[in-house]
Write a structure and sequence with these properties.
The complex is a heterodimer of chains A (483) and B (95). Chain A is α/β, with parallel strands linked by helices and 483 residues long. Chain A has 2 domains: 6-255 and 391-414 and 430-482, Amidase signature (AS) domain (Amidase signature (AS) enzymes), CATH 3.90.1300.10; 299-375, no CATH class. Chain A is built from 15 helices and 11 strands. In chain A, the strands form 2 sheets. An 8-stranded mixed sheet of chain A has the order 4-6-5-10-11-9-7-8, sandwiched between helices. A 3-stranded mixed sheet of chain A has the order 1-3-2. In chain A, helix 5 (152-159) runs parallel beside helix 6, helix 9 packs across helix 11 and helix 9 crosses helix 12. Chain A is globular, with a radius of gyration of 21 Å. The termini of chain A are close together. The relative contact order of chain B is 0.09. Chain B has 95 residues and is mostly helical. Chain B has a domain at 5-41. The chains are: A alpha/beta (483), B mainly alpha (95). Chains A and B meet through helix 9, helix 10, helix 11, helix 12 and helix 13 of A and helix 1, helix 2 and helix 3 of B.
C-alpha cells in the first residue's frame, strides 16, 4: 500500500479497497516503526485519524479531490494552527501556531491528511539537516549519511514511505538537494508561484515552497493544490495556474536541452557525472537535442547568495526577541539582556553565523560593498538564465557535486557545507523553477538530475521529468530496509 | 578581508545576539572565511547594472485602504512568554 502513487491510492480509496483511516493508520504504524530516522518532529496522530475519518465521509459523497484522504506531511516551517511549529529551532520549541499557512489551508480544503510535522535544518539554514535542534535525520539509503537539507525530514520520510508525499521549501536548494540525496522527486517552483504566507521566513526574496514526492505525476498533483495567487503574500504573483497533469504525456521530440559547461567541470564527482551522462542519453533517445551552453556568472552564485540570504535572514529573524512568542531567557536583567540572552540561548550556531554575517553586510559603511554588489551580481546571474533559456527549452545538470555525505563530515567546516549547494543556489537567485529527478545510483546512493526551466514553466518541467520516468524506473527503487 | 574578535563582538551587539566568550574565536574564523568567499565578487564589472531585489522585478503590490485583518489579539497574547492585563511584559525600561 505504501508504494502506491497518489493516483493509485485515490483509486483504492474510491473502489473501497481501503479507507483513508486504514491508509493513515498504516502510515502512522510505519512512522513509529522507523522512528530512528528522526524524520518527524511532531506526529499528529489524533488529528490525522480525525482528518482521515472526515475524508472517508467526503469520499462517500463522491465530492472528493485527488488528495482527499491521502496521508502526507508538512515541513515544520509551515504554520499549523493549534499544532507545534518549531522550524527546527529551540526558539520555537514552545510555539503553537495561531493560524495556518496558506499552503496548509489549501491541503486542508483538498481533504489531505496531515500525519505530522517534518524535521528540518534550523530555520531552513543547512544542507544536511544536522543543524536541527531536534537532531539529525538519517538518510534511509544509508543511515550513516545525511539526507540533505534543509528539507531533510521531508526527503527521508518520502523515500522511506513514512508519508505519501511532503511539502518542502527551497531557498538555496533545500528541496532539490535532499530530494537528490534521498532519491525522490522535488520541485522548486518559480518565485511567487506558491504562497509564502505562514511559511516561516528565512530569506524572503528567495524562499519558495514546493512538492516532494516519489514521482513527477505526484508532484503535479501536489503542486496543483499548492500553487496560486495569495493576497496575503505581498510577493505572490498573480499568474493563472495551468492544469499540471494535462501536459505530462506530451512528447519530448525536438526538445532542446542545454548543458552549462560550468556545471560539468572540476568539483563534480566522476560517478555522479557518469550517471548524469546516462540520464541525458535517455533524453536523446526520447528525441531531445542536447547542446553545450555557457553561463559565466554561475560561479558568482555562492558569494552573492551568502550576502543576500544572511542579510535577509538577519532582518527576518529580528522578530524573535523573547517578547511576543517563542523562547524567553530566565530572569532578564534589563531589556537588552532579554533580547541578547533569549536569542543567544535559543539560536544554534549556523543561524548565529548567518545573522552575524547579514548584520555585518547591512551595517553602515558595508551596505554598498556587500549587499548592493551582491544584488547587482544577482542580476548578472539572472541575465545568464534569461539568455540561456532563450536559446534552449531547458537546462540540465547535477543537483549536487556528490552523493550523500557522512553524518558529521562537514559540520565543522561551514564553507565546505555551503559548497554542497553549488549547483542549486543560482536558480533561487534567478527565481526560475527547477526539479530534481532520480537518475540512478553511484556506489549504491541516489543521484539526482536537475532540470531548470523558464519562469512559470513548471508544467513543462513536470512533463520532461514524467517522460523520463516512463522509460526509466529509478524513481521506483525503495531503500532496502524500508520495503 | 578578515575580522577581529572585537569586530565580531560589535556585530553581535548590533544583532542583539548573545555569543559565549569561548565561541568568539570560532565565529571570527567562520565569518572571515565567508568574507573570503565574497572576494570572488570583487573583480566583476558591475557598473551600470541595476541591483535586483525581486526575481520578476515586481514592486510591492498595493491594496485598497480597508480593514482586512480580524482581531487576533487574544490568540496572539495566549502564546506570549509574559502578559498582564492585555500587555506584553518586559523588564523595566525607564529607571
Amino acid at each position: 500500500m505504501q508504494n502506491k502513487t497518489i493516483t493509485e491510492l485515490a483509486q483504492g480509496l474510491r473502489s473501497g479497497e481501503f479507507s483513508s483511516v486504514e491508509l493513515t493508520s498504516a502510515f502512522l504504524g510505519r512512522i513509529r516503526q522507523y522512528s530512528s530516522l528522526n524524520a518527524y518532529i511532531t506526529i499528529t496522530e489524533e488529528l490525522a485519524l480525525q482528518q482521515a475519518k472526515t475524508a472517508d465521509a467526503r469520499l462517500a459523497t463522491g465530492n472528493a479531490e485527488l488528495l482527499t484522504g491521502i496521508p502526507m506531511a508538512q515541513k515544520d516551517i509551515f504554520c499549523t494552527e493549534g499544532v507545534k511549529t518549531t522550524c527546527g529551532s529551540k526558539m520555537l520549541d514552545n510555539f503553537i501556531a495561531p493560524y495556518n499557512a496558506t499552503v496548509v489551508d489549501k491541503f486542508n480544503s483538498a481533504g489531505a491528511v496531515m500525519l505530522g510535522k517534518l524535521n528540518m535544518d534550523e530555520f531552513a539554514m543547512g544542507s544536511s539537516n544536522e543543524t536541527s535542534y531536534y537532531g539529525a535525520v538519517k538518510n534511509p539509503w544509508d543511515v550513516n549519511t545525511v539526507p540533505g537539507g534543509s528539507s531533510g525530514g521531508s526527503a527521508a520520510a518520502v523515500a522511506a514511505r513514512l508519508a505519501v508525499c511532503a511539502t518542502g521549501t527551497d531557498t538555496g536548494g533545500s528541496i532539490r538537494q535532499p530530494a537528490a540525496l534521498c532519491g525522490i522527486t522535488g520541485l522548486k517552483p518559480t518565485y511567487g508561484r506558491v504562497s509564502r504566507y505562514g511559511m516561516i521566513a528565512y530569506a524572503s526574496s528567495l524562499d519558495q515552497g514546493g512538492p516532494m514526492t516519489r514521482s513527477a505525476e505526484d508532484a503535479a498533483i501536489m503542486l496543483q493544490t499548492m500553487a496560486g495567487f495569495d493576497p496575503k503574500d505581498s510577493t505572490s504573483v498573480d499568474v493563472p495556474v495551468p492544469d499540471y497533469k494535462s501536459g505530462l504525456a506530451n512528447s519530448l521530440e525536438g526538445l532542446s536541452i542545454g548543458l552549462p559547461k560550468e556545471f560539468f567541470g572540476e568539483g563534480l564527482n566522476s560517478d555522479v557525472a557518469a550517471t548524469l551522462e546516462a540520464a541525458i542519453n535517455e533524453y536523446r533517445k526520447l528525441g531531445a537535442k542536447v547542446t553545450e551552453i555557457s553561463m559565466p556568472s554561475l560561479k558568482l552564485a555562492i558569494p552573492a547568495y551568502y550576502v543576500i540570504a544572511p542579510a535577509e535572514c538577519s532582518a527576518n529573524l529580528s522578530r524573535f526577541d523573547g517578547v511576543r512568542f517563542g523562547y524567553r531567557c530566565e530572569n532578564p536583567a534589563d531589556l537588552t539582556d532579554l533580547y541578547t540572552r533569549s536569542r543567544g540561548e535559543a539560536f544554534g550556531k549556523e543561524v548565529k553565523r548567518r545573522i552575524l554575517m547579514g548584520t555585518y553586510a547591512l551595517s553602515a559603511g558595508y551596505y554598498d560593498a556587500y549587499y548592493i554588489k551582491a544584488q547587482k551580481i544577482r542580476r548578472l546571474i539572472s541575465e545568464d538564465f534569461k539568455k540561456a533559456l532563450s536559446e534552449v527549452d531547458v537546462i540540465m545538470g547535477p543537483v549536487t557535486p556528490s552523493t550523500a555525505f557522512g553524518l558529521g563530515e562537514k559540520m565543522d567546516n561551514p564553507i565546505e557545507m555551503y559548497l554542497s549547494d553549488i549547483y542549486t543556489i543560482a536558480i533561487n537567485l534567478a527565481g526560475v523553477p527547477a526539479m530534481s529527478v532520480p537518475a540512478g545510483f553511484a556506489k549504491g546512493l541516489p543521484v539526482g538530475l536537475q532540470i531548470i526551466g523558464n519562469y512559470f514553466a513548471e508544467a513543462k518541467l513536470l512533463n520532461i521529468a514524467h517522460q523520463y520516468q516512463q522509460v526509466t524506473d529509478w524513481h521506483t527503487y525503495i531503500p532496502s530496509h524500508f520495503e | 578581508m578578515s575580522l577581529t574578535a572585537d569586530d565580531v563582538k560589535k556585530i553581535a551587539h548590533l544583532a542583539r545576539l548573545g555569543i559565549e566568550q569561548q565561541h568568539i574565536v570560532s565565529y571570527t574564523k567562520d565569518l572571515s572565511g565567508m568574507l573570503e568567499l565574497m572576494t570572488q565578487m570583487s573583480n566583476v564589472d558591475i557598473n551600470n547594472i541595476e541591483p535586483m531585489a525581486h526575481p520578476m522585478d515586481q514592486t510591492q503590490r498595493l491594496r485598497a485602504d480597508v480593514v482586512t485583518e480580524q482581531d487576533y489579539r487574544e490568540k496572539f497574547q495566549a502564546i506570549a512568554p509574559q502578559v498582564e492585563a492585555g500587555l506584553y511584559l518586559v523588564p523595566k525600561v525607564i529607571e
